[in-house]
Amino acid sequence: MCGIVGYIGSKEAFPILIKGLKRLEYRGYDSAGVALLNNKGELNVYKTKGKVKSLEAYCNHKDTTGTIGIAHTRWATHGEPNDKNAHPHYSQSESIALIHNGIIENYLSIKKLLIREGYTFKSDTDTEVLVQAIEYIKSRYDLSLFDAVKRTLKFVIGAYAIGVIEKNNPNCIIAARKGSPLIIGIGEGEFFLGSDATPIIEYTSDVVYLNDEEVVKLERGKKIEVNNLNDEAVHHDIITIKLELCDIEKAGYPHFMLKEIFEQSRSLAMCMNGRLNMELKEIKLSGIINHIDKFRDAKRIIITACGTSWHAGLIGKYLFEEFCRIPVDIEVASEFRYRDPVINKGDILIPISQSGETADTLAAMDLAKSQGAFIYGICNVVGSSIARGTDSGTYTHAGPEIGVASTKAFTTQVTVLIMMAVSIGRELGTLCESRYKQIVGELSNITTKIEETFMLASEIERISSVFTYARNFMYLGRGYNYPVALEGALKLKEISYIHAEGYPAAEMKHGPIALIDEEMPIVVVSPKLKIYDKVVSNVQEIKARKGKIIAIVTKGDVDIKKMADFCIEIPDTEECLTPLLTVIPLQFLSYYIARIKGRDVDQPRNLAKSVTVE
User: Known catalytic residue: 112?
Assistant: First the structure.
């Protein structure tokens, strides 16, 4: 969940590490630190609670020289956010420093053993236990740092991505991963470490993705060396990543979130590029074509995800059941992995994750795979753990998403699910050709309609200024737009810290209607639907109780427009495609309310971008 950066080469490490930490701020964190080996053979660790700029200020008059170092942004798990719990952590002799993402589940038993051996601890973290254990193993068995890390990790239960440097070994960084992402950048005479590619891409596009339970030695003047925990050599091909520096910069926008909202027409175009033939009105997904027999024989599809990806998956359930006539279960990954679910051979599991590293979703995927399910992944990040662990799948090609609150990740995930459902439905004969052509034709026009929806931004900013007083919001939707209501409520909670809940509109009278009064803003997501008249009735119930209504409607709407206090009109489209349009005003609404309230939009409190711990 936090950020790892490392460097070894001929350049001064500190500026590279600090810039890398800033690139990783989007992941969410509460403290930051750096460890550097200088030319005098001193191992200096500097760390502070707060932002990277606080670390920079703290280091102003410190010795930050050295061409090897590791750095970290921490999101607190064990121990409160403070200076002593920040990373890096020293070993007892202060000869080893370590940074760590993840959770060491058996740290208490290891800590008790080390205390019996005379070790003392300065922090409340599981990470300090790990670095002390490495020093203990290294000393007791007279091992190199590389071998000591491998032996120590054999006893560790939990998830980790680590970087380790040693005072007496100024030419080497040791790193390892299990269940938490770690990427190695390979330059000319230099190596980089990163939780993802963002701190590396400025210097090199050649990378290696480590697999679980692999340990790497990055030694000056030598080739990369990778072993597994059984001490067996592992070969990795070097991958060239397609990522431009401009993709991870704000490009003049005040926040990454606003930039990424406006990028959605382009990201959807990239998502459909090479897959949707606009002239023939045809969709070709290689992952589906190559495995259509799996979908033809499937008795059930299970979609599993967390947060925003779960909302996209819920739309996927509606799509697959309508167009493919296959039963679909939609599961929150953190519950699915622990409740002994019934999985039959021939079931299809679709894990959805922006990062491809979401811990709960990965664990759910592994569980289903072990019980014979076919795994079809949907993720954004090429080379991620989900991408490598599935039988097949489709990348969303959303491009880097830096803002913690997902925007273009959601719409590209929904677009992939639409393309999958109509393609499979056509192959199975459950979606007739004329209807298939109709949906595909409308999908080919959707980016133009998204750009038309962008024109509503200033109007929504004005509406947002009215509702900054609110302490609670309610979001209502039906059919394909019930998940959009959930997503709109989540966005508002995430970045404005206003409590918000999403409900199916008809469920309002089964409890939530008790909350409605003249102080309660109600967002009604009500484009043209098969059951539009039912939503009109729900709006009438709200008005009777003096609720303040913000309505998202199809352009030309008459009935709801008469009753709503504020009305936002989107272009007309197929009902199954409406989430791609209705969600955009809700993204703008949450963004502008948060900005007017002075919130940290891109880095909301307590949240992390890539949730790689339970």
Answer: no
